[in-house]
Design a protein that fits this description.
Elements (H helix, E strand, L loop, with lengths): L3 E4 L2 E5 L3 E7 L2 E5 L17 E6 L5 H4 L10 E3 L5 H4 L1 H8 L30 E4 L2 E7 L8 E7 L2 E7 L22 H14 L5 E4 L9 H18 L15 E2 L4 E5 L2 E4 L3 E5 L5 E4 L6 H11 L6 E3 L5 H4 L2 H6 L3 E4 L1 H7 L23 E2 L4 E5 L2 E7 L8 E7 L2 E7 L22 H15 L3 E4 L4 E3 L2 H21 L5 H17 L6
Parallel strand pairs: 4-5, 5-6, 10-11, 16-17, 17-18, 18-19, 23-24
Antiparallel strand pairs: 1-2, 2-3, 3-4, 7-8, 8-9, 9-10, 12-13, 13-14, 14-15, 15-16, 20-21, 21-22, 22-23, 24-25
Helix pairs in contact: 4-5, 5-11, 10-11
Length: 509
């Protein structure tokens, strides 16, 4: 970790992140902090006093060494980062539900940092000795991330945090996923990069990766182009396709009829009726059990005899225990059962839309891929990854129509760009997920897709061919942003590590 001299009075320490030290006589300031072990080398540089530490953003690797003690120097951050840096505010956000699939931060510090000065205003200035620093808004990895500009000798230096990595790349690109459906974070990152590209910088100093000395403006423009490609990929999965919605008729409060023996209830639930007088429930949510009971009463069906789920998300599965108490048998795909039986072992509010509160065990498992019979219905069963990896699909003939129960992967074109969202936090996959599942739809050729969130639509061969092409394009866009060209290493693995670190936060114990 010995210092690397970049300019006469600018030094780089390769810590948990790149830490930059600017020297002025026997005093210095630092950009980011990492573990802090680099401080023991300051006397070798003639530095007696570290006066200020400026944080580009709130991620734990930028500042973990600041935890747990008082410091003789001032610590500065953007006011927008207070939520994740102030201990009291961090404790609050870690203990309340997020209401979204993507968390508000993938990498908050475990305990927060006390006594930070939140005085780094976007496009504001800070004066220290003969130096003037300007703060430029470059969000993306964090909504309030800043680049710090300094003129050192005849060089303009941009300390850009995680805004850029190397040649048109982004360090851990999953941080740009502010929402699993929309590209808000990617758009913000692109705007910040274009802003930075217009500033005539001589040196780009990112938090991770190499220092960029040669034509940094060209590198930033390339990154902006790669980000624009990802924004486009986060658009429609089937451009040019119309909605092909299945007509539905009202069947009581919160319920609608698709076919003589098939009903939709609540947000995600479907009820399939058998000639035996039994019913099978698909994707039941606990809070919508009253709607289901009302529909059963209206149809003069005493109970549900079998309950299944397309995937493990709470809003598709947490009604299963209530149905079991009422006599239903729970039958699950092995991929879905794997997740549901381990839920509740670790609890965090940011998982509220991902996992039910308690483990759910299956009474019977489907084959991973094959067939299954319930009364007169013969089902085709298969894995169906996409919005999440642990997803399945099942198809049967209802009233002479082939109906595919498809969960959350696909939507009509006017709903969420035609898909249920993808993000690393949810372990989505593109070519091996959405693309694979769209290819399955093309092989099975259903007439109706009974999907989640209140919609069903008719199959179109052209629609799903476009989805297969979109999955390849979207994956290529992510790969072009990945430092190592490996999504499992750059995109999914860091998100998995974030799961573990957040679940072990001391605020949750």
């Amino acid at each position: 970790m010995k210092p690397q001299r970049l300019l006469p009075d600018l030094f780089l320490f390769k810590d948990l992140c790149n830490v930059f030290v600017i020297r002025d006589g026997s005093e210095a300031i630092a950009i980011d902090f990492g573990s802090g072990r680099w401080r023991k080398y300051l006397p070798q540089l003639g530095i007696k006093n570290l006066r200020h530490v400026f944080l580009t953003h709130h991620h734990a690797d930028q500042l973990i060494g600041l935890s747990g003690r008082r410091w003789p120097f001032a610590i500065h951050a953007s006011a927008g980062e207070r939520t994740f840096l102030d201990p009291a505010m961090l404790r609050t956000i870690l203990s309340k539900p997020s209401g979204a699939v993507c968390p508000p931060s993938y990498a908050p510090p475990a305990k927060g940092i006390p006594r930070i000065l939140f005085d780094m205003a976007p496009f504001g200035d800070f004066f220290w000795n003969r130096h003037r620093f300007r703060f430029v808004s470059t969000p993306g990895h964090s909504r309030s991330a800043l680049t710090i500009l300094a003129n050192l000798g005849d060089q303009q230096v941009a300390f850009c945090g995680d805004a850029v990595f190397g040649n048109g790349k982004i360090w851990e690109p999953h941080h740009l996923e502010w929402h699993h459906l929309y590209p808000d974070g990617v758009e913000a990152a692109r705007n910040g990069i274009l802003r930075l590209a217009d500033l005539g910088n001589d040196l780009l100093c990112p938090s991770h990766g190499p220092i960029l000395r040669t034509r940094p403006e060209k590198i930033l423009r390339r990154l902006a182009k790669n980000l624009a490609a990802l924004i486009r990929a986060r658009g429609s999965v089937c451009p040019g396709e119309p909605d092909r919605l299945v007509p539905e008729t009202a069947a009581g409060e919160g319920a609608r009829q698709l076919l003589p023996h098939l009903y939709r209830f609540g947000v995600n639930g479907y009820l399939l009726l058998s000639k035996s007088g039994e019913a099978l429930a698909v994707d039941t949510q606990e809070k919508e059990m009253p709607v289901l009971r009302s529909l059963l009463a209206r149809l003069h069906i005493p109970k549900v005899s079998c309950a299944v789920s397309t995937h493990h998300h709470l809003d598709h599965a947490d009604g299963l225990p209530a149905l079991r108490k009422q006599g239903a048998r729970i039958v699950l795909h092995p991929w879905v059962a794997q997740w549901l039986r381990q839920t509740g072992t670790s609890r965090h509010p940011w998982f509220e839309v991902l996992i039910p509160r308690r483990p759910i065990l299956a009474d019977q498992l489907w084959p991973t891929q094959g067939t299954w019979r319930w009364n007169e219905y013969q089902f085709q069963i298969a894995p169906f990854p996409g919005q999440t990896w642990w997803h399945c699909a099942f198809q049967t003939v209802v009233d002479g129509r082939k109906v595919l129960f498809s969960g959350d992967n696909f939507q009509p074109p006017s709903r969420w760009s035609g898909q249920g969202g993808f993000c690393a936090w949810n372990s989505s996959r593109l070519v091996t997920g959405y693309g694979r599942s769209a290819a399955l739809v093309l092989r099975w050729r259903p007439e109706i897709l009974a999907c989640g969130h209140g919609t069903s639509f008719y199959f179109s061969n052209r629609h799903f061919r476009k989805v297969v092409a979109w999955a390849k394009k979207a994956e290529r866009a992510l790969l072009n942003l990945s430092p190592h060209g490996n999504l499992e290493q750059d995109y999914f693995l860091p998100a998995k590590r974030a799961w573990k670190s957040i679940l072990h936060s001391p605020h949750l114990k």
